[in-house]
Amino acid sequence: MFISGEDGRTRAEQLLAILRQIDQYVSSALDHERGRGCQAVYEMLLKFRMLCTSGFCPLGCHGGCTHNKSVDRNLHGNFANFPTAFVLPSRDALSLGDRVIMYLPRCADTNVEVRKLSTQILDLLFSIALSLPKPINSNLGVDMEMSYLALSSLEDVIAILKSDASIDPSEVFNRVVSSVCTLLSREELVAALHGCTSAICDKIKQSAEASIQAVIEFVMKRKDELTESDVSRITQSLLSAVGHVTEKYLRQETLSAISALAENTNPKVVFNEVLATAGRDIVTKDISRLRGGWSMQDAFCVWKYWLISRLLLLCTYFCDFMKLYI
């Protein structure tokens, strides 16, 4: 990453390749592997931020040093003649949506140190992202003032975690999710929601439950930004999670997330995806022998109750309307 990257995007691609190799440890069922994985990610991001802000000195210097400029010229040419956008990656090169949904479950981990590290990782990711140049003709849709306020809130959470390990983990996670929801651009949000299957199927039950709640909050807070195509892809990811989760409670929670998606976006698109998935299952699987039962049957039950509740609400509105004229 330090010596072979010719421009910002190449270095970002190398960073992502390294981080993806560490993903298996970050999502491990073993506490010590998750801890080491998160520590490795944090160290890599620290080095990447140093590289973006002050360059790299092979002699081990941190920040500005007398060797830095000469080293950069010899290895990479004189970057002083290039625009900043060439030397540094753009924000979209970091694949923030994919990275966020990978580390977010760890913010609700059963291990205190993992929770601290993962929150620091998210803070570091967004602080790097906010310092990078926007792509030409960029339409990230990020409110910079709100983003810095959310980043400040995330740093407050880190300070609390460092000073008081006894704080309620669910309260901390809710604050992290709220900040992340503000910091993500529309495209990053969609990428995170589309990649939610692995988070919901996390090996740590507590993290899986928290991931479902995060998905619901993302949908409810940013529903107006989701297109029909986005809703379709997100529904597919949630249905995939429903099919992979064997525990009844987690399956019901995931179905609740699908209901929330339908209620807050386009129910027709969501139901069409449910029907399409059910049709594929009937053709390709022996649904009578599936472990934990056929997940789509549960989905139809949830959908039935959702429709009944909508009809009852509609009847209530109609009765109230008629009372005005009786």
From TrEMBL:
UniProt GO cellular component terms: cytoplasm
Sequence ranges assigned to domain Maestro-like HEAT-repeats in this UniProt record: 95-271
Annotated SUPFAM superfamilies: ARM repeat
Pfam families: HEAT_Maestro (PF21047)
Protein name (Swiss-Prot/TrEMBL): Maestro-like HEAT-repeats domain-containing protein
Domain of life: Eukaryota
Cross-referenced InterPro entries: ARM-type_fold, Maestro-like_HEAT, Maestro_heat-like_prot
